[in-house]
C-alpha cells in the first residue's frame, strides 16, 4: 500500500520533500525521495497586493463616513443614491479582498473564482462609467459652475450667502473678484481681497477706490479663471483615480486567474504523486 510523507526543506514554504514508501512486515522503508517545488509562486504577492487594496478600501470607507457625517451636521443636500452607491462599492471591495486572501491562503479555487468574477464586474463597470461620464463631468459640470459664479454679478449687490462663498474662494485661491479683479466689488472691497504677497498684489491709492486707505494692497488676479482651472484639475484627478482603480482591479483579476491555474496544477500534481504514478519531469 503506497504511503506518502511530506516535510519542508530548510524551513522554506515553497519546497517540500516527498517520501513515497511501502509497508513491509509492519515497518516503513523509504525507497525514494522526490523534491517537489510548490508552484504557487503568486500566492504571497497576491496576498500582499490584496492587503494593500483592502487598506485603501478601508481608508476610503472611513473618508466616506466622515464626509457623510459632515453633510448631515451641516444640513447639505446630496443625492442619497450617490452615497449608497459609494458605500456599496467600498464595502464590496473590502469583502472581495477578504475573499481573495482567504482563497489564496487556503487554496480554495471557488473563492478565487468568485473573487475574479467580482473584480471583472467591478473593473468593467468603472471603465464604462468613467468613459460615459467624462464629458458630462469634465465639460457640463464645469460650465454649470462657471455660470453659477457669473450669475452672482454684480458682486456688490449679490446675496449674503454668495458673498460668504466668494470670500472663501478669494482666501483659498488668493484672488479678488471674478472677471475684472477688485473692480467687480466696486467701492466695497472685502477683507478677503487683502494681499500680503508682493508678487500677487496690486496697490490701490486712496483716490482709486472711494474710501480705500492709502497704499491698500489687494490680490491682482480675478478668481473665475483660477477657480475653473482648479475645478477642471479636480475633475481630471477624479477621473484618473477611477481609471487607475479599474487598472488595479484588472491586475488583481489577472493575478487571481494565474493563481487559480497554479493551485489547480499543484492539486493535480499531488493527486498524481499520491497515486504512485508520478514520472519525474512530467510537471
From TrEMBL:
Keywords per UniProt? Membrane, Transmembrane, Transmembrane helix
Query: What is one Pfam family matched by this protein?
Result: Tetraspanin
| Gene Ontology annotations for the cellular component aspect, listed alphabetically | membrane
Q: Does the keyword Membrane apply?
A: yes
Q: Which residues cross the membrane?
A: 47-68, 80-105, 112-132, 234-257
Task: Describe its membrane topology.
Answer: Multi-pass membrane protein
Gene3D superfamilies linked: Tetraspanin
Membrane as UniProt keyword? yes
Q: List the SUPFAM superfamilies hit by this protein, alphabetically.
A: Tetraspanin
Domain of life, per the record? Answer: Eukaryota
Q: Where in the cell is it found?
A: Membrane
Protein name per the record: Tetraspanin-8-like
Please tell me the species this chain comes from: Monopterus albus
Amino acid at each position: 500500500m503506497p504511503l506518502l510523507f511530506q516535510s519542508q526543506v530548510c524551513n522554506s514554504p515553497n519546497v517540500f520533500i516527498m517520501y513515497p514508501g511501502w509497508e513491509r512486515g509492519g515497518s516503513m522503508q523509504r525507497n525514494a525521495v522526490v523534491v517537489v517545488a510548490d508552484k504557487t509562486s503568486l500566492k504571497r504577492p497576491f496576498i500582499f497586493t490584496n492587503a494593500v487594496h483592502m487598506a485603501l478600501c478601508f481608508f476610503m470607507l472611513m473618508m466616506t463616513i466622515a464626509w457623510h457625517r459632515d453633510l448631515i451636521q451641516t444640513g447639505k443636500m446630496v443625492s442619497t443614491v450617490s452615497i449608497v452607491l459609494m458605500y456599496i462599492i467600498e464595502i464590496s471591495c473590502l469583502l472581495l479582498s477578504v475573499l481573495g486572501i482567504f482563497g489564496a491562503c487556503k487554496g480554495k479555487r471557488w473563492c478565487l473564482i468568485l473573487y475574479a468574477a467580482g473584480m471583472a464586474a467591478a473593473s468593467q463597470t468603472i471603465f464604462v462609467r468613467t468613459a460615459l461620464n467624462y464629458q458630462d463631468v469634465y465639460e457640463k459640470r464645469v460650465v454649470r459652475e462657471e455660470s453659477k459664479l457669473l450669475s452672482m454679478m454684480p458682486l456688490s449687490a449679490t446675496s449674503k450667502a454668495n458673498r460668504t462663498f466668494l470670500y472663501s474662494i478669494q482666501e483659498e485661491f488668493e484672488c479678488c473678484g471674478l472677471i475684472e479683479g477688485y473692480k467687480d466689488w466696486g467701492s466695497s472691497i472685502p477683507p478677503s481681497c487683502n494681499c500680503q504677497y508682493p508678487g500677487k498684489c496690486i496697490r490701490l491709492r486712496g483716490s482709486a477706490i472711494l474710501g480705500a486707505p492709502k497704499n491698500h494692497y489687494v490680490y491682482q488676479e480675478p478668481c473665475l479663471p483660477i477657480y475653473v482651472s482648479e475645478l477642471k484639475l479636480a475633475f481630471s484627478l477624479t477621473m484618473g483615480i477611477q481609471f487607475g482603480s479599474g487598472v488595479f482591479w484588472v491586475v488583481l483579476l489577472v493575478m487571481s486567474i494565474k493563481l487559480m491555474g497554479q493551485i489547480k496544477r499543484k492539486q493535480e500534481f499531488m493527486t498524481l504523486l499520491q497515486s504512485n504514478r508520478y514520472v519525474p519531469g512530467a510537471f
